[in-house]
Structures are given as structure tokens and as C-alpha cells.
Amino acid sequence: MSSKTKLLQKLGVEHPIFLSPMAGVSPISLSAAVTNSGGLGSIPLASIDFRQDDGLHKLNALIEDYAAGIDKPRNVVNLNFFCHEVEHAPDTAQVDNWKQLYQKAIHASDDVLAKAQFTNGNVSFRELERDHPAKYSLLMDYLGTLRPKAVTFHFGIPNNATMKWLQQKTGCLVLVTATSVAEAVFLVEKGVDGIVLQGYEAGGHRGNFLADETSDENLSTHALFSQVKKYVDTLPVDRAPYLVPAGGIGDAATIRYYLAQGADAVQLGTAFLATPESLTAKFFSAAVDGTRADTAMVELVSGKRARAVRTAFIDALVGLNEFRRDELPGYGYAYNAYKSLKPLVEQDIGFYLAGQNYHQISKGKLTEHVMHELINGLK
């Protein structure tokens, strides 16, 4: 039995297509549609603060909605956590710098900027492990009962005890994002079940955790997959992780290529951005018809690098910035401030995350139709 077939059997799905976890973009209906079409739907959990008493309630509500919308067991799902370095609350100077930058970029008044909320909107899984053992235990108990087929981590990896507990007590597969060969080797040594190989052309937040922006090689999906596959082929079979390339994959021909080269599955997100289920369908439906705008890696919105469509807002923010990264609020705090500011201004300051090939997507097609075309193209 091939490793791809084993992976599909373990996940309880028919086709090697994973939905990228896209917080703020993919509602439960989109995830359910992918699962009902034979792929693996994903539920992004980065915005849930599991330190709070209502954290598990929010998670359970998502699971209940997902279960109601699928024709498979509720545990046929990928639950995605962010596992970045724990950020500190911004100081007064960082907050003032952020307000100064946004005032120049969008001409917001002092009264409006004063309403920005600099609380942590993306609490790292690592913080839960390290500082909140009681809440951590409750979450682990919940996962032990649910027994999700896959749990994935972005921006890094949890501690060894967490990973072993998930693998042994829930039976789930633990997959982690890598953006370089060094990160892939590190994850293999940690004993992950699979690696999501995120190429530089991928949309959304870049998941690097060993290299910073200055030392990131920025490998394309093809280059990253090829090099990691060559390394994995030298490993004993029982140590070889499942490989799931992600980035620039939007049609059946590209999927067929990666599967033929030894990938066990692929992960797609941008392909679904213009579907009616997507929360950014309006923007991307218009973008497909209009003049193509470039994408760029932007860190000034969330506090971490993320590939997004260049808009007037993004260009102004980047062009007018005079601050170093450490002179502005960190990830989570910066992102929450931006999100709290967004509904208070009249102009569109959307942060439209997308891969470099977003202009190739079709508008108006339901998620199930996109999946149907992809699956038929694999036959």
C-alpha cells in the first residue's frame, strides 16, 4: 500500500486534497463542502483564546456546526493551531508608532485611532502550554474525546509531550508547516507524522520558524518539495513523514504533478477564494475581472509576513512606514488593533490574503464544483 493510500485511509477521506486553514476567509460551510466532496476540511483556531473560559465553548460550537454540515463523522477534520513565539504586550512607544503609521496611511482621526484595541487576538498554543496548565489540560481532554483525524501547527511546533499525547491518546496525525529544508529536517527529528511544505508563492501567513526574513531562502513550492523529498527518500520507511506541498497549486494538472513526484496530498486555499462560501468572495470575484494587482509579503498589518494582494491601503502602509519591526506592536497585538480599526473607517482597508496565482481562479463556482473539477482532472 502506498503512503498516499495509507494517509487517505487514516484521514477517512477519498481524495488527497486538503483545504488550507484560512482564518477570516473560510467559514464552516466552505470546510464542510471540501469534506463532503471527499477532501479534508480544515478549521482554523488561531483566533480562539483558549486561556478564556469560553474558549472550549467556541471550539465546540464550530465542531457542532461542522458536524451538522458534513456526511462523515465529525472527527474527519483538520484542526489548525498557531504555535508562534509568545509575544509581549506592546509598550506605549510601539502603540504610538502604530497609530502614527496608520494615521498617515488612512488619514484616520485621533478619536478613531484611540479605539484600536491592543489586546492579543492570536494567542499562541505555546503560551497555553507554558502558562496555563489547567486550560491546556481541558483542551487536551476535549481533543481526546473528539479524536480529530488531523491536528496541524503553523509557525512552529508544540512541545514533545503535547505531540506524543496527541499521537498516542487521540490517534490523530500531527502535521506541521515547514518553509525550508532545515525546518523539514527539524520536524522529522521531532517525530511529526507529516509536513505541510509551504512555498514562497503561497498566500497567507508564512509559517517559517527557524529562519527570519533576512535568512529565509524563500523557496518556491516546487523547489522546497523537491529538496525535502530527496531528503525524505533517504530515511527508513517508518521515519518518513507524509509530504503535503502548498502554494501555487490551483488546478488538477499541478496536483497530478506533485502526486506523481511522490507527494501524499496537496493543500489548497487560493483556489476557493472566489467561491460563494468564501468570506472574501466579493473582492476576489471583482479582482478576477479587473486589472491584475500584484501580491506582496506584508508584515505591517498583522505583525508577521503574509502574502496579500497589493491594494491602495497596502501600498500606502508599506510606502509610508518608517519604523523597524521591533518599533511596532508584535503579532497578535498588531493584528487585533488592525481588526478593531477596520470597521471604524469608511475606506476599504481589507487585508486580502492570496497566493501569487490568485488571478487564475474562477468566480461564482460553489466549493463543491471547484472540488468536482479538481477531482475529475485527477482521473
Automatic annotation (TrEMBL):
One of its GO terms (molecular function) is nitronate monooxygenase activity. CDD domains: NPD_like (cd04730). Its cofactor is FMN. InterPro entries: Aldolase_TIM (IPR013785), NMO (IPR004136). Keywords: Flavoprotein, FMN, Monooxygenase, Oxidoreductase. It comes from the Eukaryota. Belongs to the nitronate monooxygenase family. NMO class I subfamily. This is Putative nitronate monooxygenase.
